[in-house]
From TrEMBL:
Family per record: Belongs to the plant LTP family.
Domain Bifunctional inhibitor/plant lipid transfer protein/seed storage helical: 38-122, 155-239
Organism annotation: Cannabis sativa
Gene3D superfamilies xref list: Plant lipid-transfer and hydrophobic proteins
GO BP terms, alphabetized: lipid transport
SMART domains reported in the protein's UniProt record: AAI
Gene Ontology molecular-function annotations: lipid binding
Residues of the signal peptide: 1-32
SUPFAM superfamilies: Bifunctional inhibitor/lipid-transfer protein/seed storage 2S albumin
Name of protein: Non-specific lipid-transfer protein
Keyword list, A-Z: Disulfide bond, Lipid-binding, Signal, Transport
Function: Plant non-specific lipid-transfer proteins transfer phospholipids as well as galactolipids across membranes. May play a role in wax or cutin deposition in the cell walls of expanding epidermal cells and certain secretory tissues.
Amino acid sequence: MAGNKLNVVPLFQVMTLVVVCMLAEAPGRAEAATNITCEQVTNWLTPCISYGVFGGTVSPECCQGIKDLIAAKRTKDDMRASCSCIQKGAAMIPGIDYDRINNIPTLCGTSCHYKVYPSTDCSNWVWAILVMTLVVVLMLAEAPDRAEAEASITCEQVTNWLTPCISYGVFGGTVSPECCQGIKDLNAAYYTKDDIRAACSCVQQGAAMIPGIDYDRINNIATLCGTSCPYKVYPSTDCSKVV
């Protein structure tokens, strides 16, 4: 029995090496139209495997690899390819904890555009959210709400200011400077209670159409940006009574 326990870690290391070699030498079809290869993804994320299996503390090398990967994702094909590579690699690692690996970007102070599980469709899942985001932007820009009637703020303006915040609202990670600037621009545009109510209504309508939105997260953005918001938005919020 003791001998078996002593062999667990070396066996895991051998399996990790096998995964690295397989992904490095056999790129998937998802790489066809991308600059990112499975070899690169493997090199960046290999330091994260130990945390993904055993837990503990995420290493600085893992966090740097996550940030290098995120910096390399410039197109939708890059995102799909990296998602596919991670999915294939994780499937070959015994004992991998998917919730744990999906939380690594947050622990590293950044964010990822997707979450990887065995059931994730890397060819569609990432962009379903982004397409939905675009639909939200267009709908709110073209169909102003009745709450705007007495306000100088429009849903189009609110959408333009807050679109950079959507990624954080869905995936978490780090709030971007563009999001914080949008929050501050929105706050600066409040002149009357009707402005505040109109903005509240626009945010509420938009959030309701974005799959995976985390209301607690979006309500905390203003604080993370070093400012404040005169209301909290939830599905149950009555924006007509916000003052």
